[in-house]
Amino acid sequence: MPCADPGSDIPARLDRLPWSRWHWRMVGALGAAWVFDGLEVTLAGSLGAVLTRPGTLGLTAAQIGAAGSLYVAGAVLGALLFGRMADRLGRKRLFLATLAIYMTATLATAFSPNFIYFATCRWATGLGIGGEYAAINSAIDELVPARVRGRVNLAVNGCFWLGAALGAGLSLPLLDERLLPPDLGWRLAFGAGAVLALVILRVRRDVPESPRWLLARGRAAQAERIVQDIEAQVRRERGSLPPAAAGRIAYRSART
């Protein structure tokens, strides 16, 4: 049964924090989702012509288009499915799980022997990316101070183009037949996404659960410990913290 929470000053304490290296680390670790999407979309476009060659997968133009559609369908399903799960299971579990799905799927794509396997992997990759969008947007909104939230979201969503640029840059050497055989270059291109995801996964393990989500689930003591740790890290960098706004916000929490 839902129960009334007596209120908490944690949201005000998070919002009053000055911007710090801690915030940069959190935004970098979480915002990589858009880099991955830009990377995948650009690589798929660059590799399409290569994958139609007999020496590679020998796909038809229709099959290339179908694989792209399955990627988008997976992303839509992932956003719907993992968005709901993020509210039930927590932001941290989901942004680790969705990154693991993306990493596994894009690595598996590199070993594709035929169209069915390739298309399934592209759908699973989209599933992970869509889940990333749902879980990451929630986590960023709840960890970033309200006064800069709009600008941070705009900057983070713009990271798609960083991924697009990275994908374009990678495709030049990896698809150059003077450097690599065609059937190896496209596989390494998809494998590069998995390597980047592994690096981000290690960084993302240090991102805490959202204190606001914990409050909404009736886990105020755990939320308090996380906020105290964040405040200590910011205080070490900035020397002091501004006072939090007066008042407490009441939560109605549903314990599971």
Please explain how this structure is put together.
This protein is mainly alpha-helical and 256 residues long. It is built from ten helices and two strands, in the order βααααααααααβ. It is elongated. The N and C termini lie close together (9 Å). The chain has a two-stranded antiparallel sheet with strand order 1-2. The N terminus is likely disordered.
Secondary structure elements and pairings:
Layout lengths: L2 E2 L5 H6 L5 H31 L9 H29 L1 H19 L5 H29 L5 H9 L2 H15 L7 H23 L6 H6 L3 H19 L13 E2 L3
Antiparallel strand pairs: 1-2
Helix pairs in contact: 2-5, 2-7, 2-8, 3-4, 3-5, 4-5, 4-8, 7-8
Key structural traits:
256 residues, mainly alpha, 73% helix, disordered N terminus
Q: What's this, in brief?
A:
The protein is mainly α.
Counting copies of identical and different chains, the oligomeric state is single chain
Biggest pleated-sheet summary:
2 strands, antiparallel
Number of strands: 2
Strand portion? under 5%
